[in-house]
Amino acid sequence: MLTKEQIGLAVNQRVLVALEGSDEYYVSSVEDITADAVFIAVPYRRQVPLVLSRGDRVTVQFTGENECFAFNTTVTSRREDRILLYGLAFPEEIKRIQRRRDVRLCVMLDVQYAEVPEGDAAPVFKPGQALDISAGGMRLVCEKEYPPGTVLLVKFRLPLRGSFFETVTKAEVVRTEPVALEKRRLYHSGVKFLDMPQNHRDKIFSYIFWKMMEQARLR
């Protein structure tokens, strides 16, 4: 069994919880960590609580510094102070489930993109949309076919807990495929961010994680 320090959870940390074997995740948070248990608030999904009993097996997912993690454990107790808490046994092991940069969120985003200008010329941005985003890149809807290897400038902003995160970054086209939309020929271009600071990737990942939390609540 892992120790408190090895688990990597912290009080107030958001987690996703599902009954073992189910893919229906509920949103919860870590409320206390004792010498032998992690106490979480009652998980909710679309205002419906996940009612757990002692002995139930659950899967917990959470995000770490650079990756997402998951572990299976057992509900060992219920504790009621101001709110009802479920006590979870420390797990035997924790698995990495996905690299942070690979966690992709399907979402329509307003973006602006431009070809990299020559010399000191200012870039000419065009309004566009992204169909998904990860900390490593996004899928753009473009009016022009950009072959793989083309470097674009991409500008976008994301809502983050009452404020906005804005960035402009270089992005390399890694794939392009034509699509037809309302008799228009468009292109879906998958791009990867180039030279993006780690703290910017962290903010993108935070946005993705919170959106995933919201989606879990609404499903």
UniProtKB/TrEMBL annotation:
Gene3D superfamilies: predicted glycosyltransferase like domains (2.40.10.220). Residues 98-209 form the PilZ domain. It holds the Pfam family PilZ. Keywords: Cell projection, Cilium, Flagellum. Residues 11-91 form the Type III secretion system flagellar brake protein YcgR PilZN domain. The keyword Glycosyltransferase does not apply. GO terms for molecular function: cyclic-di-GMP binding. This is C-di-GMP-binding flagellar brake protein YcgR.
